[in-house]
Structures are given as C-alpha cells and as structure tokens.
Amino acid sequence: MFKILCVADFESYGGDDFLKRIQLLCKAGVDEILLRAKGLDEADFYDLAMVVAQICENYRKKFIINQFFDVACKLKSDFWLTSAQLDFFKNHGVFLDEFRKTAKIYAPAHDLEQAKISATIADVLVASHIFATSCKAGLEPKGLNFISELKSFDKEIYALGGLNNQNYKEAIKAGASGICFMSLAMNGDIELIKKIVESKNEQI
Fold first, then answer.
1. 126-174 pLDDT, tens per residue?
2. Across residues 24-42, what is the average pLDDT?
3. Cα 62 to chain center, whole Å?
4. What are phi and psi of 58, to 5 degrees?
5. Got the DSSP string for 116-153?
C-alpha cells in the first residue's frame, strides 16, 4: 500500500491558519507530514516544528523535518535533506549512521547521478519532478520512466512534483511507494485528499 506525504510548506500556504491546515490533512488520513519553511531561521523553525510535531503525534502521523538536521535530532523525527546538503552529508555520512538507527532519511533524486549519491546515505529516494509544475516552471519534468529507472537502487521511491488527484495513480503504477503533494495539500480541496486516502484500499 502506498504512502501519502503532504509537504506543509510555510511559505506557499495561502490561508490564515497554517497549523489548522495541517490538522485537517491529518484528519483526512494522510500518512506523513513534511514541515518545510525555508524562510525561517533555525530557532523560529524549531518553535514551529515543536507544534507541528505535537499535531502529528496526536493523530499518529509520521513527522518529517526538512533542511534543519539539528532540529530533526532534537525532536527525534525523520529528516528530508536538500540537494544543497547532499555534498556535505555524502562526505560526512558518519553523522547519519547513528541517526538512521531510529529515523529515516529522505534524499533528493533529480537525476540518476544524484540518486546514486543519495542511495548511499538515504532510506527514501525522492524522485523529482515527475510532472510539470509551476514550482519548476520551464524545466522539463523527469516523467514516469524515471521512477522505473530508480528501482535499481533498491530503495523506497517517493514521487514529487506536479502530482494531483488525476495523475497520482500513474506514479504508483510506475513503481513509487509514496506520493508527495504540496500544492494540493496546502491550497487544494481537502475532500480530494480524502478521496485519495480512500483509494489506497483499491487495486491500482
């Protein structure tokens, strides 16, 4: 059964109550919440992360920290590292060895060369971007075949980028074990999220 990960992006949310939105996503039945807030410094991010972590715990949802490794360590959450951090961690993997005994590492896979590096330190490869998306305007999407190509690394594969309620099943059929929503999660209809959750019990 595939996992549904929602990217709770602090900067992209158009509503007044960011935390309420996360609560609604948890209620809708998504599996994982990634907190992303690149505009915040580490101290402010930590304050926000503590609140989001509590919401996720209340609903028994997996909580993932983006970018701030020290915060992930303090909160004992999973960690999603950025492309910019990959060079550091591939040379200092010892920092992640102990961490991975109790938590998962998600790492980017924007091409096969990057995926090869990520596979040495991560549990989950995040294939991006699969479909055209406004976040990557003008850049050619990797397409569904890219997911199939990543299978050789023998890692969990999560599909990201341009996924919505109309195309997510294609990513699952191509071999993704998880699907990531950001635009739909932050500003889309919660009812659509619920329908996707319900579809997890269907044969895809």
1. 999 899 776 665 678 889 999 999 999 999 999 999 999 999 999 999 9
2. 96
3. 11
4. -60, -35
5. HHHTTT-SEEEEE--S--GGGTTSPP--HHHHHHHGGG
